[in-house]
């Protein structure tokens, strides 16, 4: 058994590590090292961008355990001195998930805004926005950059509608994501300026006259601020919750949608089958989620006590990273894992995590994608790449795998 990965595309492996981290940034090809890791080093040693040691978990079984076992904590990442994947570009306390929001009224408002009922009420508007964006593209004709002209602005509209923001507010927050979720070894001045700008914008909207009558989460938070709910939250708490939800939601949904469209274009037989079977869209979205490679840096957890994982001793304070693309392509769980099969029922994929920190916005994410994909399939017959797939430029230094541009024909 080889101690260090030595595949054909081997890059520099630092001392005291089994593979270089992060893995390839291409979002269209599963890194070949994933199979090697599952077979040889299911709990592997890596060095993060900050130089911190970490454990990389690649099998579905062990990844599920890490995500479900409360020994491995997300909240502990906000503690002073915690090992990190990369330098923080926003305050550590904002890393806590919705489940960690201590104020009961705030938590209730967030969960209500993300509930299936609220999303279903807004879904008609999602489709109208998708059609309006596609009207512009069809009128202009190909080629067009699907990211700049469709997936990003559509995502802004969806997140803005659910959170009660104006599209202008959403666009400004979306622009800030270019800095807000960079993966860097050291913090930098612009990160704090970017954070302060977004916080100031949202605080102003929460304080504006009539904010308590606004729709969505913005209005609910403004009512809490006005004393119609719990009193133990500050304006910064409210603004941070809203901005954090926008960041997490827009980032994940936009990245997934872009790569889902790319997957379909690379498998035209599957795309044509789905076009002919629109009733299968919900199941197809699950398979596209399983295959999706957007989560490029692993899901992080901190061990809160000494434990064992796959025969490897894990010490209290160790950083553990879940390699989602490894788990979701594990042949022990998904037969023929590298094949896109829209008739598959991949119910145990980990695209939304698992356990206590299972994504609270799963219904929103699924609806966002299914509405957009239905619109694209309806309106763009013959959809295909305008450039060779090898010429797609993949963004580096970002928390998600994403294409800088996605030029298409139809």
Automatic annotation (TrEMBL):
Keyword Transmembrane attached: no
Coiled-coil segments on the chain, per record: none
The UniProt record lists the keyword Metal-binding: yes
Domain of life: Bacteria
Keyword terms of this UniProt record: Heme, Iron, Metal-binding, Monooxygenase, Oxidoreductase
PANTHER family: CYTOCHROME P450 YJIB-RELATED, P450, PUTATIVE (EUROFUNG)-RELATED
Protein family membership: Belongs to the cytochrome P450 family.
Protein name per the record: Cytochrome P450
């Amino acid at each position: 058994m080889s101690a260090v990965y030595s595949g054909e595309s081997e890059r520099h492996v630092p001392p005291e590590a089994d593979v270089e981290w992060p893995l390839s940034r291409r979002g269209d090809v599963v890194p070949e090292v994933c199979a090697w890791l599952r077979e040889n080093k299911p709990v592997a040693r890596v060095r993060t961008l900050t130089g911190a040691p970490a454990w990389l978990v690649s099998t579905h079984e062990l990844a599920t355990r890490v995500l479900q076992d409360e020994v491995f904590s997300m909240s502990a990442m906000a503690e002073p001195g915690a090992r990190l994947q990369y330098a923080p570009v926003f305050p550590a306390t904002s890393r806590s998930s919705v489940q960690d929001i201590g104020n009961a009224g705030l938590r209730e408002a967030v969960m209500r805004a993300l509930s299936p009922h609220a999303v279903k009420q807004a879904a008609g508007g999602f489709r109208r926005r998708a059609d309006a964006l596609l009207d512009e593209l069809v009128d202009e004709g190909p080629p067009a950059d699907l990211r700049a002209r469709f997936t990003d602005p559509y995502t802004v509209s969806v997140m803005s509608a659910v959170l009660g923001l104006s599209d202008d507010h959403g666009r400004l927050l979306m622009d800030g994501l270019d800095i807000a979720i960079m993966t860097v070894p050291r913090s930098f001045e612009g990160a704090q300026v970017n954070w302060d700008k977004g916080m100031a914008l949202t605080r102003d909207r929460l304080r504006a006259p009539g904010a308590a009558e606004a729709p969505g989460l913005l209005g609910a938070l403004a009512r809490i601020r006005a004393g119609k709910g719990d009193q133990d939250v500050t304006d910064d708490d409210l603004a941070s919750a809203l901005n954090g939800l926008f960041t997490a939601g827009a980032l994940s949904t936009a990245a997934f949608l872009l790569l889902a469209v790319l997957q379909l274009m690379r498998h035209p037989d599957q795309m044509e089958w789905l076009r002919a079977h629109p009733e299968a869209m919900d199941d197809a979205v699950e398979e596209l989620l399983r295959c999706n490679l957007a989560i490029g840096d692993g899901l992080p957890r901190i061990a809160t006590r000494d434990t064992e994982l796959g025969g490897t001793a894990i010490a209290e304070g160790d950083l553990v990273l879940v390699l989602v693309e490894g788990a979701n392509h594990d042949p022990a769980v998904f037969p023929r894992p590298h094949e896109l099969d829209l008739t598959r029922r991949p119910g145990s994929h980990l695209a939304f995590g698992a356990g206590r920190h299972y994504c609270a916005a799963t219904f929103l994410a699924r609806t966002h994608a299914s509405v957009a994909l239905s619109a694209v399939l309806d309106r763009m017959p013959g959809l295909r790449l305008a450039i060779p797939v090898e010429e797609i430029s993949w963004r580096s230094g970002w928390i998600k795998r994403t294409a800088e541009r996605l030029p298409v024909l139809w």
